[in-house]
Design brief:
heterotrimer, A alpha+beta (60), B mainly alpha (208), C mainly alpha (313), A: 60 residues, alpha+beta, two-stranded antiparallel sheet, 13% strand, C: 313 residues, mainly alpha, 16 helices
């Protein structure tokens, strides 16, 4: 276990960040990734078929 | 004591009200309307799961106190889980909010569910903020000295002093989590009482 | 029952269709396991940031002139804290939202007198030193006019301030005890004693770092470090984190307003942006009750995707 703890950060993100400038917008790459992932997740949730709803039945 | 007297008891009346609004089959349902069939429905429970992780990691951090994580690699790891569960918490909550907005999930007497959800979001933003200023590192020095101007300008700074570590830590680990958990509980119970919002009637118009 | 017309954005149609099995306890358990694993994975991969806190000791050793200039600013009343207003002092009326002076109305609840709290009291807490004791006695025995004349004479030469051989030197005359006070405070800062003197102002225990944080924020050292980390307000810093970590991305709208007119150039930006965000939060809260806003989902029709199976059947 101690070995696992010492690995606490395999890819530490402590170096100075990168930033995206676009007009007035000034975003860190990390935040940009989070926001893009959020939008992609939302879109995926809308479009991907939800499993296990084929055996629908009258129950009430 | 007569039956009528028992019926009039506060305890009896409260029990009957609760049982009427939230019978066990509503609190823990085993079926859902067939329209509840989309990945968008998983983000509410994901938010709650992330909140559980936030609280669990927070409890572990609390055991050894606010500065343990600076000097212990285990502590730092637990802090990392605290940070990432917060990121997932907000991630899931915002996707949940978008989903509920586009379903107009406040329809059919569910406006209070929406309202408690938004208040929970705002309370969570405050909880996260007080966590950032309680880190006892460069980040908290910078964030607190910056944020003070915004908060002081509204007059709130006269009682809510972001430069007071003890005060911020209390808000972060007692007051605001309590608020967030109570609000979340009310929110979830309202969802259970009212059920999941039905689809719009749309052109089909058969469900009325 | 009511004969009110059906309002599609307020009322929900009664559902009389099919029900399907749904195991919410199983769903919740799966969610906790998946989120738990994801949290451990992210924490193991990326860790979390922990830039060490700066101290007045590190600041004054890295840049003694910036420290001494700030210390002088606390004496001559030119620092941010000295000119702040409520809740720290009455030096300024503070920001106003139209006719509302909210900060001033709330009053001075966390009194900070920069001359006394940041200079005189810490110096007085030092062990006996002949020069310093004489300087403090001279300061305390002088009239306010005399004090301000010494400080103002010293300030005139402060732009030529130099640091060499452990001494701050300013080309100025008729400065009374001010050079000794500034030099003693700088020496005190460089030893780490000022960090302690500022936090322990209230006695043995403290959990309150208001004074040292205000002092540190008055200098340029903290802000320069923050600028390198892209944390300044003008850099959308409110949502950024040290290093390359994601920050409080949910504050994007709050920090956005500071970047655009009229807020970017307003002296009341803080209270204006707070008020605007309060108003927008209220709008979000009241969406179900606001005609027009609450019709957006029905008109955008994203719900057709969510409930596509329902509409197909």
């Amino acid at each position: 276990m101690a070995y696992l703890w010492s690995l606490a950060a395999l890819i530490p993100l402590d170096n100075y960040g990168h930033y995206i400038h676009w007009g007035v917008i000034d975003l860190s790459v990390a935040n940009f990734i989070v926001i893009v992932l959020m939008i992609l997740t939302f879109i995926a949730a809308l479009f991907l078929p939800f499993p296990g709803r084929n055996r629908r039945k009258e129950s009430q | 004591m007569t039956t009528a007297e028992i019926e009039r008891q506060w305890t009896t009346r409260l029990r009957k009200r609760v049982a009427g609004h939230l019978p066990p089959e509503k609190l823990l349902p085993d079926t859902q309307p067939a329209y509840v069939s989309s990945w968008i429905y998983v983000f509410g429970v994901t938010t709650i799961a992330a909140l559980s992780m936030v609280i669990l990691s927070g409890i572990i951090l609390a055991i050894r106190g606010p500065q343990w994580w600076h000097s212990s690699s285990i502590g730092h790891f637990i802090n990392s889980t605290h940070l990432w569960s917060v990121e997932i918490f907000f991630f899931a909550m915002i996707v949940h909010l978008w989903g509920k907005f586009f379903m107009a999930a406040w329809r059919g007497g569910r406006s209070l569910t929406w309202v408690t959800g938004v208040v929970t979001f705002l309370a969570s933003v405050g909880t996260a903020f007080t966590g950032y200023v309680s880190q006892t590192n460069f980040d908290s020095q910078w964030i607190s000295t910056q944020a003070k101007d915004g908060i002081n300008a509204t007059g709130v700074g006269s009682i809510f002093n972001v430069l007071n570590l003890g005060q911020m830590l209390m808000w972060h680990i007692v007051l605001l989590p309590l608020a967030a958990v109570i609000l979340t509980t009310i929110h979830v119970l309202l969802v259970r009482v009212k059920g999941v919002v039905p689809p719009f009637e749309d052109e089909k118009g058969t469900t009325k | 029952m009511s004969t009110k017309p059906f309002r599609p954005d307020v009322d929900a149609p009664k559902y009389e269709g099919k029900y399907a099995p749904y195991d919410i306890i199983k769903e919740g358990t799966i969610a906790i396991v998946v989120v738990g694993l994801l949290v451990v994975l992210l924490a193991t991969l990326f860790g979390s940031p922990d830039e060490r806190a700066i101290t007045i000791k590190t600041w004054s050793n890295a840049d003694p002139v910036d420290f001494a200039t700030t210390a002088l600013g606390e004496l001559n009343g030119t620092t941010i804290t000295a000119q702040y207003g409520a809740p720290y002092n009455t030096a300024a009326p503070g920001q106003n939202l139209g006719p509302l002076k909210l900060a001033q109305f709330a009053g001075v609840t966390i009194p900070v007198n920069t001359v006394r709290d940041f200079v005189i009291d810490p110096l007085s807490s030092q062990p006996y030193n002949k020069n310093l004791s004489a300087a403090l006695a001279q300061w305390k025995g002088a009239s306010a006019a005399q004090q301000s004349s010494w400080v103002s004479n010293y300030t005139k030469g402060a732009s030529k301030m130099t640091w060499s051989n452990g001494t701050i030197t300013v080309p100025a005359t008729n400065t009374g005890p001010v050079p000794t006070m500034i030099n003693s405070l700088t020496a005190m800062a460089r030893s780490g004693a000022l960090d302690q003197a500022l936090v322990t102002g209230g006695g043995f225990y403290t959990t309150n770092y208001t004074k040292p944080l205000l002092f540190v924020a008055d200098g340029t050292y903290l802000a320069n470090l923050a600028q390198k980390q892209h944390l300044l307000g003008s850099q959308w810093g409110m949502m950024n984190e040290t290093g390359s970590y994601p920050g409080q991305a949910w504050l994007w709208l709050y920090t956005f307003w500071y970047q655009v007119s009229p807020f970017s150039s307003s002296s009341n930006a803080d209270v204006q942006v707070s008020a605007l965000m309060g108003l927008l939060s209220l709008l979000l809260l009241l969406v179900p009750f606001i005609p027009g806003l609450r019709s957006i989902p029905r008109k955008v029709k994203i719900y057709r995707l969510i409930w596509r199976e329902y509409y197909r059947s």
